[in-house]
């Protein structure tokens, strides 16, 4: 057969395939989501997320050091308080669980880059992401509390804050308060495109954050929409977001690509708890090769346009990179 163009030439060996590779994964791009809880000397496995745990502040150093040893230097903290109230005051309290964890983490692993998740659902007695007016979240009064939460996290040691509430205008409110208090250099990673998704189920068990009534569809996005995602992303960039996140990741890679093409800031994808739980469950049944599936999922996010990948498999992916199985 007389053929000049043969694409298989670039697939003939491992070294050739790696040299011609279009998409690369780097440890510096990984974020590990970590749950911290009140109490002492406890590490509690999350039933719906085998291999993931709630850590008390005095024990969290074990995981932080393990991550650092693997080369994962970025951690996002989610707090589970003992006490909740109508206005989520634990989210912005100086002695809140995340604030205490941030201070301890800075002592344990000073070179770890710490990100505070800025939301209120874990801290409100009703489980919604802000203060209520009747049976819906009142957007504008919630902005003040979100900004206070972000400021308190930065004062406690957060290197970056990540508002995940999906209130209109929250990036600008946070930016203004941080700037007014001398934190002009602190970046904001906005959950700009966060869908009302069934993939969050295990997280809500882990963080004890399920709403006590109704759902979050009046503030999280309708998963049918993609042009709206671009609108949300552009608004957050105008308000001062430095990084944009798309959540969930796996089923919304088309959205990642659209947002990547429409903006000029880094895009993060969050491989959420439901994705993790599905992979774990299938792997435990012996139906899939867990390592290979996790690697493919990570590469797909970067291929779609992510510069940053948040995943419960961050430590494992770092090891795959060392072993040459992904990269």
Largest sheet properties = 10 strands, mixed
- Please provide the ordered H/E string of secondary-structure elements: HEEEHEHEEEHEHEHHEHEHHEH
Calculate Rg over CA atoms. 20 Å
- Average residue-wise pLDDT: 92
Structure report:
- This protein has eleven helices and twelve strands.
- By secondary structure, the chain is an alpha/beta fold.
- The strands form two sheets. Strands 1, 2, 3, 4, 5, 8, 9, 10, 11 and 12 form a ten-stranded mixed β-sheet that branches. The chain has a two-stranded antiparallel sheet with strand order 6-7.
- The longest helix is centred in the middle third of the chain and has 18 residues, at 139-156.
- It starts with 13 loop residues before the first helix and ends with a helix.
- The model has no long low-confidence stretch (mean pLDDT 92).
Jot down its keywords.
single chain; 327 residues; alpha/beta; two-stranded antiparallel sheet; 11 helices
Q: In brief, what are we looking at here?
A:
The chain has eleven helices and twelve strands.
Helix-strand blueprint:
Layout: H1 14-19, E1 30-37, E2 43-45, E3 53-56, H2 60-70, E4 74-80, H3 97-108, E5 113-118, E6 132-133, E7 136-137, H4 139-156, E8 160-163, H5 170-180, E9 189-194, H6 201-207, H7 227-239, E10 243-247, H8 253-262, E11 267-271, H9 273-284, H10 290-304, E12 308-311, H11 314-323
Parallel strand pairs: 1-3, 1-4, 1-12, 4-5, 5-8, 9-10, 10-11, 11-12
Antiparallel strand pairs: 2-3, 6-7
